[in-house]
Fold this sequence. Notes:
single chain, alpha+beta, Glutaredoxin, Glutathione S-transferase Yfyf (Class Pi), Chain A, domain 2, four-stranded mixed β-sheet, 9 helices, about 50% helix, globular, Glutathione-S-Trfase_C_sf, Glutathione_S-Trfase_N
Amino acid sequence: xxxxxxxxxxxxxxxxxxxxxxxxxxxxxxxxxxxxxxxxxxxxxxxxxxxxxxxxxxxxxxxxxxxxxxxxxxxxxxxxxxxxxxxxxxxxxxxxxxxxxxxxxxxxxxxxxxxxxxxxxxxxxxxxxxxxxxxxxxxxxxxxxxxxxxxxxxxxxxxxxxxxxxxxxxxxxxxxxxxxxxxxxxxxxxxxxxxxxx
Length: 198
């Protein structure tokens, strides 16, 4: 059975939402990051970065939320959480799946710390550019790939929910508000919110 290592009120939300969307049986394994449980040798064998979420599926073990999404969606195609390798949507799916850790998270750090990074050297460009690009993509809706909900929406939706709805680090925009509302309406999102709260 899949084991998801998680901690309340953390990035674990995306892993819980993913597995709730998947319909696959899984076990949540509480990893209390406030006590340093993520630094134990047992946990570091699963994710040497000592972060949650992490996932174990038989002999496969990995960390990083976007990688977990990619793994589950590809390992279990019956979940229909990713376009197949021959589908033209696959390219945009991969782009948006990794947009959250590659662009949204660094942009939020830039906003929070008020770091001035030249756009020419910042891999994410600038926080303004990240959210303008996302705004334009989501305006087409209803999901990041158009009519198809995918694991990329779990990553993008988790990031925007955190940035706009929960912590108000990013000003709301009509496209963000409508997209977050569609995410929140999903039964799997609602179950994940309850589970992730601890």
